Amino acid sequence: MPPVDKPYAESCDQNRAPILAVLAPLLRSRRRLLEIGSGTGQHAVYCAAALPHLTWQCSDRAEQLPGIRLWIAEAGLSNLPPPLELDVLKPWPVERFEAIFSANTAHIMSLEAVEAMFAGVGAHLEPGGLFALYGPFSRDGQHTSPSNARFDAWLRDQDPAMGVRDQRQLEKFAAAHGLQLTAEHAMPVNNFTLVWERN
Fold it and tell me: What Pfam families does the record point to (predicted)?
């Protein structure tokens, strides 16, 4: 098997500080967090280093795990355990968490997978637990910026199942699984962090 190169996404370096600024106050009293779709693992390493009281559990589909393991091994953080294989459309190999986080996943998932993600979050969050979702979102069928409209068109050209998701649709998915929207944080480059609480 050929060696795995450590993956790198420039966007993670650009958005990690604003994301942490939103997450840190929310996670002050939390002890266990699941990240859905950890990607390269960069967000996990950065946030786990800044939040040593919190166990940050990475997860992703099987093909992403070797790269995440490289970031985790290099970081050597005691609160960053090995990543879990998690496909939102299959049974989740996890128990319950006090918080769940996902960044830049909803627009690359099919709508079926997005709904499955909310179902899994509802099933695996402790009562009072938080779900923070970062990314671009439309509102009532309208894009929040011309750049997001172009991005949505580009995504759908790559794969018709992908696309920028409408916040109202996400709120319906969330409500069906016991999640109530409690905060909306505007982020750089026309992104948002949406925060739900488990009833």
Answer: DUF938
- Its sign, for the CA torsion 11, 12, 16, 19, is positive
Give the global pTM: 0.96
SS (H, E, C) the chain: CCCCCCCCCHHHHHHHHHHHHHHHHHCCCCCEEEEECCCCCHHHHHHHHHCCCCEEECEECHHHHHHHHHHHHHHCCCCCCCCEECCCCCCCCCCCEEEEEEECCCCCCCHHHHHHHHHHHHHHEEEEEEEEEEECEEECCECCCHHHHHHHHHHHHHCCCCCCEEHHHHHHHHHCCCEEEEEEEEEHHHEEEEEEEEC
CATH code, residues 10-198: 3.40.50.150
12-23 in b/e form (b: 16+ CB < 10 A) is beebbebbbebb
Kindly tell me if the per-residue pLDDT of 3 is higher than 90.
no
pLDDT tens figures, 46-72: 999 999 999 999 999 999 999 999 999
Per-residue pLDDT at 4? 76
pLDDT at 2: 59
